[in-house]
Amino acid sequence: MTQRKSQPLMRSLKTSSAVSSTGPSFAIPAPNEKVELYSPAYFAACTVGGMLSCGVTHTAVTPLDVLKCNMQIDPSKYKNITSAFKTTIKEQGLKGFTRGWSPTLIGYSAQGAFKYGLYEYAKKYYSDIVGPENAAKYKTLIYLAGSASAEIVADVALCPMEAVKVRVQTQPGFARGLSDGLPKIIRSEGVRGLFKGLVPLWGRQIPYTMMKFATFENTVELIYKKVIPTPKEECSEPVQLGVSFAGGYIAGIFCAVISHPADNLVSFLNNSKGATVSDAVKRLGLLGMFTRGLPLRIFMIGTLTGAQWVIYDAVKVLAGLPTTGGASPATALAPAVSA
User: N or C: which end of the chain has fewer CB within 10 A?
Assistant: First the structure.
């Protein structure tokens, strides 16, 4: 029994079996699992799911992102959503709404792979460090620490593509896309020019991701406890994926609000060579930093985050894994704590 408790990874779980005593389970076992929980194959499946969920969804909302970025960069020209739409159509045509899709696809696919894959690993790692009882008691802190750790790495992968994307979207004539935009930045500013927005990107994405994962995990658990009378393991897969979307959309609203000032800052710095934080505040105003483009971003991020969780959990279901969230670690750990 002692050796079993010291195992770093949990053995494969079946529907009717008790949870191993190695550490907390943050997911309900799915029937006929094809992948062992917390095995290298499990983390690989999570990485692929994250890559698909972020890459596909961010690319799909590129037209909204074009409007948002232009409203942030030039508020006098793009006064609101309607004005931004009409101006973009007039000056660039329908093709203007697809600008920056290639760096978006590559950058956010890489970010999603690290974000979700490392989150699952960090969540398990920190849970093992603090032990089953503390992990159950302080589950939200585990979610926050795991997501923050993952996002630090994920943003390093995203930053160069984000720099290219913003310039392509907000500076017509700068470049057609990634193939000519990336070398153009490197020639004029060096490789460092691709990472000058990294600190503001961390300022936007780390609070965003902490809010995204912690809110999602707790919201899904609350939905299964208070809204749906049927236990999660008895719900159909479409119902579980519907809960994932609802939890993701709610989390996305909070994400958009908490990260919006930094989002405005990232767009401004990536668009203006040599610009500083004080330049952004002077140009947009303190109130503008918090509100410029916010309604559009709430709609975009809410929809995007909900869709991300559906795609991510769908990949896990295809791998025979349980969907994310829905069970309190305290409930899952009961057999282990009493063993």
Answer: N
What the block records as the tokens of 187 is: 């020639």
| 159 and 201 Cβ atoms separated by less than 8 Å | yes
Q: Quote the strand ranges of the chain, DSSP E.
A: none
Q: Could you tell me the sign of the dihedral formed by the alpha carbons of 6, 121, 316, 26, in that order?
A: positive
Mind giving me the DSSP string for 232-288? Answer: GGGS-HHHHHHHHHHHHHHHHHHHHHHHHHHHHHHHHHHHSTT--HHHHHHHH-HHH
DSSP letter at 98? G
* pLDDT value at residue 327: 61
Residue 269: per-residue pLDDT: 77
Q: Give pLDDT, residue 32.
A: 52
* Farthest-apart Cα atoms in the chain, separation: 71
Q: Per residue in 275-311, is it b (16+ CB within 10 Å) or e — as a string?
A: eeeeebbebbeeebbeebbbebbbbbbbbbbbbbbbb
pLDDT of residue 219: 95
In the three-class reduction of DSSP (H, G, I as helix; E, B as strand; rest coil), residue 297 is classed as helix
Distance between CA atoms of residues 224 and 332, nearest Å? 14
Task: Count how many Cα atoms sit within 13 Å of the Cα of residue 86 in the half-sphere of its side chain.
Answer: 7
Q: What pLDDT is stored for residue 314 in this prediction?
A: 96
Tokens coding 268: 């401004």
Q: Identify whether the C-beta of residue 325 lies closer than 8 Å to the C-beta of residue 216.
A: yes
The burial of 109, by beta-carbon neighbours within 10 Å (0-12 exposed, 13-18 middle, 19 or more buried), is given as buried
pTM: 0.78
The answer to whether residues 27 and 46 touch, using CB atoms and an 8 Å cutoff, is no
Q: And the tokens for 203? A: 């300022």
Cβ neighbours, 10 Å, residue 24: 28
Q: Which residue positions in the chain have pLDDT lower than 70?
A: 1-33, 271-273, 327-339
The Cα–Cα gap between 329 and 28 comes to 10
